């Protein structure tokens, strides 16, 4: 008994000249670029490994999630529908410890002022 092999399908691709399909890169949102920029501002001659970058990225994602959750909770407590900079500021004071919260609030206020003045 002889089994027939299926005929090869013709490659009809829209892509490169050699017939290969262009694969769309999947997006990966990360704060890596911004972490690197801040690192270069603080320590211009220092690098960072991929593993350390992933740890820093996870740390930032977790921190922003905590702040957003706390700000959302504050909106629910005060029965407001709109999340404003005031709720974010209060959430930062609750989530971040002491001096770090003061610096974060002052930098945030400066950024909001700069954004609204344009």
From TrEMBL:
Top-level lineage group: Eukaryota
GO cellular component, one term: nucleosome
Biased composition (Basic residues): 1-11
Keywords of the record: Chromosome, DNA-binding, Nucleosome core, Nucleus
SUPFAM superfamilies noted in UniProt: Histone-fold (SSF47113)
Residue span, Core Histone H2A/H2B/H3 domain: 18-94
Predominant place of localization: nucleus
GO molecular function, one term: structural constituent of chromatin
Subcellular location: Chromosome; Nucleus
Region spans: Disordered: 1-26
Membership in a protein family: Belongs to the histone H2B family.
Description of how the protein assembles with itself and partners: The nucleosome is a histone octamer containing two molecules each of H2A, H2B, H3 and H4 assembled in one H3-H4 heterotetramer and two H2A-H2B heterodimers. The octamer wraps approximately 147 bp of DNA.
Protein name per UniProt: Histone H2B
